[in-house]
Amino acid sequence: MKIPFYKMQGAANDFIVINNIELSFSQAELVKFAQQICRPHFSLGSDALMVLDKPQSAGDLRMRFFNSDGSEAEMCGNGVRCLARFAYEEQIAAEEMIIETRAGKVHCWRLDQRKYKVQMNLPSVTQWDQYYAAKELTVDYLELGDPGVPHLLLSYPDLDNTDLSDLKDLACRLRSWEELPKGANVNFYQIRADNEVVLRTFERGVEDFTLACGTGAVSTAYTLFDKKQISAKSIKLSTLGGVLEVENREGQLYLIGDTNIVAKGILLDEDLQL
Fold first, then answer.
1. Domain 123-250 class in CATH
2. Could you say which DSSP state residue 94 is in?
3. Torsions phi, psi of 224, nearest 5?
4. CA angle at residue 76 from 151 to 185, to 5 degrees?
5. Whether this model's pTM surpasses 0.90
6. Is the peptide bond preceding residue 147 cis, with omega within 30 degrees of 0?
7. What gap in Å lies between CA 108 and CA 121, rounded to an integer?
8. 222, 253 Cβ separation under 8 angstroms
C-alpha cells in the first residue's frame, strides 16, 4: 500500500497528515491507521494523525484528528494551523478558509509562508475555582468549542524551573478525575512579567506531557482574560515547543503560530495492516 503523506509540526506538536478525499479510508481504518503509523521506532511516529476530509456543511474542508492511541479528538489548535497550510499547499483551499471540526467551524488565515492564524471556538462550559479534594487544590475547568475539548487549568509557581516528572503523578490524577466524564487535558501555568505565561500541558490520548498544545494555550488565555488576571489584549505562552500567541479581539480569541513541513512523500510501511 502506497499512501501520500505530509509530516508537519506546529510548536513541536507533530502530525502525519493525509488527504482522505483521495484515500477514502473508513472510520475503522483511520483508527487502526493512526494506532500503527504514530508509533515511534516502528513507523513514522507522531503525536497524532490528521485527516483532511470532505466538508459536511458550509466549510471548505473537514478536519479529523486521531490521537496516537486511535481516539478521535474534537480538534487541535496546533493541528488546525498545520492542516490549513496543508490545504493551501495542496491547492485545496485559498489563503482564507473555513475548516469544519468536531468542536465547530474554525476560520483560518495564511499570514505568510509559515505563519497561520485561526479564530478559535469559545468555551461551551466554564467552571471556575473547582475544589480538587484529593490534593486540596483549586482548579479551573472549561470545554473549548461545542462539543468542547476539556481542559483543566492549574496555576503553578516556579513552573519554568520544575521538572515534568515532578508533575506527572498529579497530572495523571487530574486527567482522570471522576468528576469529569470526558477526562481532561491538564494545563499547568505560571504568569510572568510582560503578559508572558509559561505553559505545560498533559494531554489525554497521548497520556503524557507534550511539547505544546494549541487548545491548551487558548484555554489558558481565555481563563486568564475572563478572570482578569491579565489585562492586555495579547498573551504570549511559552511552551517546550516554542511560543504561541493568543489575541483577544472583542471577546474573540485568535491563535497565531508557525507551521513547519518536515517531510512529504509516500508511506511504504510493510507492517501496515488495515
1. alpha beta
2. -
3. -70, -40
4. 25
5. no
6. yes
7. 12
8. yes
Residues near 100 by beta carbon (within 8 Å), at least 6 away in sequence? 55, 56, 57, 59, 61, 62, 63, 106
Q: Distance from CA of residue 251 to its chain's centroid?
A: 21
β-strand 148-155 against 242-249: which pairing, if any?
unpaired
Give catalytic residues, as residue numbers. Answer: 76, 213
Angle formed by the axes of helices 214-226 and 77-89, to 10°? 130
What is the per-residue burial (b if ≥16 Cβ within 10 Å, else e) of 104-125?
bbbbbebeeeeebbbbbbbbee
CA dihedral 58, 85, 20, 215 (to 10 degrees): -80
The model's pLDDT over 68-90, given as tens digits with 9 standing for 90+, comes to 999 998 888 899 999 999 999 99
Q: Where in the chain is the domain with CATH 3.10.310.10?
A: 3-119+259-267, 123-250
Asked if 85 and 8 count as a contact pair (C-beta separation under 8 A), the reply is: yes
Query: Alpha helix (H) ranges present in 19-132?
Result: 20-23, 27-37, 77-89
Would you tell me which CATH number, out of the four given (3.40.50.2000, 3.10.310.10, 3.30.420.40, 2.40.50.140), belongs to the domain 3-119+259-267?
3.10.310.10
Q: How far is CA 155 from the centre of its chain?
A: 20
pLDDT in tens, 150-186: 999 999 999 989 999 999 999 999 999 999 888 999 9
Instruction: Check: CB of residue 15 under 8 Å from CB of residue 8.
Output: yes
Number of Cα atoms under 13 Å in the Cβ half of residue 232? 13
